[in-house]
Design a protein that fits this description.
203 residues; CRO Repressor; 3 domains; five-stranded antiparallel beta sheet; DUF421; transmembrane helix
């Protein structure tokens, strides 16, 4: 777990479990194959570990692969109203009875108290109560735009790109850009930071 960058089982993704099946097959095969030499076993073990690292690299750096293997947050309530289109699209992943149970564990008595709620990729529920400020979102990571999150925040991507260009900011130099309370908090690859007002980029 530590070797592939995980600290607990709940962080395991489909890629991790697939890689673990391969790893288990290598170890199990070596136990029941008396003709397999230690050199061959070591090579196969290193290949399986390398394959796992490669898959994890792809799932963390290519957004389309990440969406399939790790998943994306699913908003279910926004501005105190159910997002029925989202719920219908992801109906196989959404159990409303479980969501209510999770809300009650978080201290909510009813859906009526929820201003915003989303199901996170690990299945946990994040929710806020009667607060007109939505939780922050990462809209750029390592120079790559998160189009889905940008759209959910009702940000016009072309205006966002123009804002960055106006402030002479190269997207490839951005490590992380966080959108919160109509501001963009940018951390660059060299560790420096910059904050931009983002009223002009809303749709």
């Amino acid at each position: 777990m530590n070797f592939i960058g995980k600290t607990q089982l709940t962080q395991f993704t489909a890629v991790d479990f697939f890689g673990n099946f391969i790893f288990g097959a290598v170890v199990g095969g070596s136990i029941y194959n008396g003709d397999l030499e230690i050199t061959g076993f070591t090579i196969m073990l290193l290949m399986s570990v390398g394959f796992m690292l490669f898959l994890n690299y792809l799932s963390h750096h290519i957004l389309r692969i990440r969406a399939v293997t790790i998943g994306e947050s699913i908003p279910v309530i926004k501005h105190g109203k159910f997002l029925l289109d989202k719920i219908e699209q992801k109906r196989r992943k959404i159990d409303m009875l479980r969501i209510l149970s999770q809300l009650q564990c978080l201290g909510f008595s009813s859906f009526q108290e929820v201003y915003y709620a989303e199901i996170q990729p690990d299945g946990q529920l994040a929710a806020i109560k009667d607060k007109p400020v939505l939780p922050s979102e990462i809209i750029i990571l390592r120079g790559v735009f998160f189009d889905t999150l940008i759209d959910e925040q009702e940000i016009d991507k072309e205006r966002l790109e123009l804002l960055l260009e106006t402030n002479r900011i190269d997207v490839s130099a951005i490590f992380l850009a966080e959108y919160y309370e109509d501001k963009i908090f940018i951390t660059f690859n060299d560790g420096s930071e910059k904050t931009l007002e983002s009223y002009s980029i809303k749709k």
